[in-house]
Amino acid sequence: HAVGSGKTLEMIVTVMEHRRLGIWRKPLQVVPNHMLGQFAKEFKEAYPQAKIIIADEDHFHADRRTRFVRTIASSDLDCVIMTEASFAKVSVSNEFEVRMIEKELVLYRDALHALNLGKKEKGKQGSPAARIQALIQKFEERMKQLKSKTVDQNFNFEQLGVDAILVDEAHA
After folding, report:
1. Quick one: DSSP state of residue 21?
2. Which candidate, 79, 89, 88, places its Cα nearest to that of 39?
3. Which partner from 25, 63, 72, 164 sits 20 to 30 angstroms from 79, CA to CA?
4. Counting beta carbons within 10 angstroms of the beta carbon of residue 144, is it exposed (0 to 12), middle (13 to 18) or buried (19 or more)?
5. Read out DSSP for 92-140?
6. Taking a C-beta distance cutoff of 8 angstroms, is the pair 27, 81 a contact?
């Protein structure tokens, strides 16, 4: 989308239509740090009755973050609007990350198996098979770290209750 083509309004309408249709229960909109105020203003102009909550630096400050996350989790909201900086502070649980890595490992192992079918030796350095093997090893190491690590988290992403994420300027 070119600048000024209505991308922000398109995302807002997408959120509200999905809510209206019952497809999303609590969407999260992640916006560039400098766009938070403008995005929230456009949301309220388009849908004055919308129940939105804005995770700005004040609300998402370290000493207020846990209480604010509880508010998000326990409220029926049309949209949570959060800056990229605030979103980066929300982690996922170790268990969730392990499940995601396990899914990725299945895909990589299947791809490696497909590449090695009919071959007697593993891929040479730099080959697709060697790159996949390196990725598998990296994921396995990360999974070992996560399984052995105990994290004292005040909250994690799953606790927000968010079921959809829209990211403005996702390429950044």
Report:
1. T
2. 79
3. 63
4. exposed
5. PPHHHHHHHHHHHHHHHHHHHHHHHTT-SSPPPTTSHHHHHHHHHHHHH
6. no
Q: How many CB atoms lie within 10 A of CB 41?
A: 11
Q: Residue 44 has which token pair?
A: 């309220």
Pairwise CA distance, residues 26 & 77, whole Å: 6
DSSP string of 60-104, one letter each residue:
TSTTTHHHHHHHHHHS--SEEEEEHHHHHTPPPPHHHHHHHHHHH
Distance CA 144, CA 141 (A): 5
138: how many CB neighbours lie within 10 A of its CB? 12
Here the tokens at position 127 are: 């080959």
> pTM of the full predicted structure?
0.71
Residue 135: CB atoms within 10 A of its CB come to 15
